[in-house]
Amino acid sequence: MDTTEAAGPALFAPTRAGTSPVTSPATARAHTQRVVCEGWESPSRRARPEDVIDLLLVVSELVTNAIRHGGGLAGFEVTPAEDGVRLTVHDHSDVIPDVALGNGAFPRGHRGNGYGWPLVIRLAREICVDRRRTGGKTISVLVPLRPSPAG
């Protein structure tokens, strides 16, 4: 499946204060945390801490997989949505993971030795893996966030 891109993948993810170079799982987590605080949360709405932990875990897994198995990180975007945060990770590999359509446990086709992709499947929604016209692939997921109860 090909995706149409208006421009190449952004290696820098935009923030309100400028740009944030995302080159590692740690910088991706820090950028994502800023986006949640500045773009999803408000004075009357805070994300549940356990949901933010899940979100940051998914960020770590996707970015680590791009670096280790995808020929390197080609871009990373974080977009606040009403019901969570959409993560988009671009890498340089055309290979679509055999387990991309698994059910959250180790799918029968799982040949890896890690727990990363099954964890992503369990914690994220709307998972989409597309080959890019310019080479590589894009993985996009929505990680749900719930508001903390008032109190």
Automatic annotation (TrEMBL):
Stored Gene3D superfamilies: Histidine kinase-like ATPase, C-terminal domain
Coiled-coil stretches noted in the UniProt entry, renumbered to this chain: none
One Pfam family per UniProt: HATPase_c_2
Domain called Histidine kinase/HSP90-like ATPase: residue spans: 29-140
GO MF assignments: protein serine/threonine kinase activity
Keywords noted in UniProt: Kinase, Serine/threonine-protein kinase, Transferase
Biased composition, class Polar residues, residue ranges: 17-26
Spans annotated as Disordered: 1-30
InterPro entries, A to Z: Anti-sigma-factor_SerPK (IPR050267), HATPase_C_sf (IPR036890), HATPase_dom (IPR003594)
Record protein name field: Histidine kinase/HSP90-like ATPase domain-containing protein
Organism: Streptomyces lincolnensis
